[in-house]
Amino acid sequence: MISLLRISALLAAITFAAPVQAQQPYDGPIFDAHLHYNWEPTPHYNVEQVFELLKKNNVRGILATSRPNTGTVALMEAKQTDIWVVPFIRQYKTRADIPTWFRDDSIYEMTLTEFKRGYYRGVGEFHIYGKAAGTEGAAKLVKFAVENDLYIHAHCDVEALELLYSHDKRARIIWAHTGFSTPAAELKALFAKYPSLMGELSFRGGITEYDGKLTEDWKDLFTKHSDRFLLGTDTWITPRWLQYDALISGYRAWLGQLPKERAQRIAFGNAERLFRSEKK
Ligand SMILES: [Zn+2]
Fold first, then answer.
1. The domain containing residue 255 runs over which residues?
2. Were 68 and a residue from 37, 62, 93, 185 both cysteine, which residue would form a disulfide, CB within 3.0 to 4.6 Å?
3. pTM for this one?
């Protein structure tokens, strides 16, 4: 019995002594650049609970959107000062608008009306794929964004991304999910071609190995392009709210494997550069 205990103590000591990728997680502030506070069908948390959750995770800023825009307006009207809210105008009143918004004049009208509130910094997140991004409705929204100094938060494939830029090269696009699985070499080419393009990383595959270690591709992308990425949780359905703590700690784990200044840039600094330095 004693020898068994000794063996297990010895094993435990070996386990603790083993080099288990001992980097500390990044513990600084985070900007969540993909937060939906949807009120349709119903909000999962009330406004106070949302802010509590963010504070608990040291999420100090959010790119906020909602379906309909009522949720974002409620966050703005809370007039709290702990969390920096950067509101974007969403093109959806209900989920049914997702595949049709760019063919629906009433959605464009809603965007114009919403814009009059005066505090919005962007449009989106909207979904668009392939040739649909070349249509008049999509072009109209891109032009509206450029004319009014608004960012564009687009969930799209590469073909649609390039078509969105074709309407006006001055567009500033935050690419939701960074293409999900677009290969690293293609991402580099897109970053070179479109200097304003930013990649938001929710649901993005390939960043880490099964053991949580950054892959070589992504270590390289974060080394060369740490100024082009933003973090996001994409709270599009209730289960994502329930996973919020885990999503943020997942980001903190791989950020901890990067040099501090790069981690800080991806976690918060890039959002500051985009949203604080210009139009108030
Ligand atoms: Zn989303």
1. 27-275
2. 93
3. 0.90
Instruction: Let me know if residue 3 belongs to a domain.
Output: no
Q: Residue 6 falls within a domain, yes or no?
A: no
Asked if residue 1 belongs to a domain, the reply is: no
Q: If we measure between CA atoms, which residue out of 28, 33, 25 comes closest to residue 178?
A: 33
The number of folded domains in the chain is 1
Which residues partner with 231 through β-bridges?
A: 32
d(CA 13, ligand 1 centre) in Å: 45
Looking at residue 257, which CATH number applies to its domain? 3.20.20.140
Task: State in Å: Cα 35 to ligand 1 middle.
Answer: 7
Cα-based torsion angle of the residue sequence 44, 48, 51, 55 in order, rounded to the nearest 10 degrees:
-120
**Distance of CA 36 from the midpoint of ligand 1 (Å):** 7
* DSSP strand pairing (229-230 vs 198-200): parallel
For each of the chain's 280 residues, which pLDDT tens digit applies?
Answer: 445 445 454 444 444 444 445 689 999 999 999 999 999 878 999 999 999 999 999 999 999 999 999 999 999 999 999 999 999 999 999 999 999 999 999 999 999 999 999 999 999 999 999 999 999 999 999 999 999 999 999 999 999 999 999 999 999 999 999 999 999 999 999 999 999 999 999 999 999 999 999 999 999 999 999 999 999 999 999 999 999 999 999 999 999 999 999 999 999 999 999 999 654 4
Residue 139: in which H helix or E strand, if any?
helix 136-147
121 lies in some domain: yes
Kindly list the protein residues that place their beta carbon closer than 5 angstroms to ligand 1, a single-atom ion. 125, 234, 236
How far is the centre of ligand 1, averaged over its atoms, from the C-alpha of 219 (Å)? 25
